[in-house]
């Protein structure tokens, strides 16, 4: 079972949101309704939003907390008795990876849009923004409920252009065959703690992140898109990824995961295991217990992300996609300002740095 005390406490979706059909209509709609409105914002601001991994020495500045210690110039540090780091000219091209959690809990939404649909829109828009600038995007897709263990982790190699984005969307919408034997026992009660036994289809994000450690060799921009409803053990590999790459955790959430409405008797189902539970949402003690456990899970999740040292962007199913992308742009600018510094005095510059 997932660590959220009542991941089961969400109504079972009517059907999978990976609708059949071409990915073209979604991308076309995003290009007209979202990307065109962002063009003015991103125009001329490329270097402050996306940095590559170029090797041309451009400058030296004093070391600041959070700088990569591998860039310390020990000769200048010894001369000045103050740590200095090398700054390099950023490549115009970079590689971005999307690590996509496509587990059953992601295919849920209490409103008109599921977390999976939200993920599709965000990934498609951001991937198209990147590829329009000449960058390459790739993906690792995680399907923990796949019947064939070899299909639970799939890779889309990095590529550029609009066709690559269309292929990425299509891969997100083509899940492998689900594993049989999902738990289907229905029980009634007000306890917010489901059975502790391991059930098929449980999400282990550590598998996805560990696979990424072996695949991502060159320093990259990494987006981990998940609701982070998973078995324990994912924080450590996420932290290791963050030490080698620039990582953004994109957390998907739905309001109903934090509080239940008073709607009387309600059959809820764990989307990953199929376990069902009949609960009485008119019971205020039950609703309070649910909210308390959800808040505790929320605090643990935030603590784990903080310890992993990653930036976090939260996306709720009721959020506007353009507003979410604007928050991401603001986060990128903040990160760029945090890494900016002052140039060395002219007397200390070599001809290469002048």
Please provide a written account of the structure.
The protein has 354 residues and is an alpha/beta fold. It has 2 domains: 24-43 and 92-319, 3-Layer(aba) Sandwich (Rossmann fold), CATH 3.40.50; 55-89 and 331-354, no CATH class. 35% of the residues lie in helices and 19% in strands. The protein contains 9 helices and 11 strands. The protein is globular, with a radius of gyration of 23 Å.
In brief:
By secondary structure, this protein is α/β, with parallel strands linked by helices. It folds into two domains: 24-43 and 92-319, 3-Layer(aba) Sandwich (Rossmann fold); 55-89 and 331-354, no CATH class.
User: What is the overall silhouette?
Assistant: globular
- Average pLDDT reading: 79
- Regarding quaternary structure, how should these chains be classified? single chain
> What CATH architecture of the largest domain would you give?
3-Layer(aba) Sandwich
Radius of gyration: 23 Å
CATH topology of the largest domain: Rossmann fold
CATH class of the largest domain: Alpha Beta
Q: What is the number of domains?
A: 2
Helical stretch tally: 9
Largest sheet: 6 strands, mixed
Spatial sequence of strands, sheet with the most strands: 5-4-3-7-8-11
Helix content: 25-40%
* C-alpha termini separation: 59 Å
What are its keywords?
single chain, 354 residues, alpha/beta, Rossmann fold, three-stranded mixed β-sheet, disordered C terminus
What order do the helices and strands come in, and which of them pair?
Blueprint: H1 24-42, H2 46-49, E1 56-62, H3 74-80, E2 84-89, E3 95-101, H4 115-132, E4 136-142, E5 153-159, H5 162-172, E6 186-188, H6 205-215, E7 221-226, H7 235-244, E8 246-253, E9 265-269, E10 276-280, H8 284-308, E11 311-316, H9 321-338
Parallel strand pairs: 3-4, 3-7, 6-10, 7-8, 8-11
Antiparallel strand pairs: 1-2, 4-5, 9-10
Helix pairs in contact: 1-4, 4-5, 6-7, 7-8
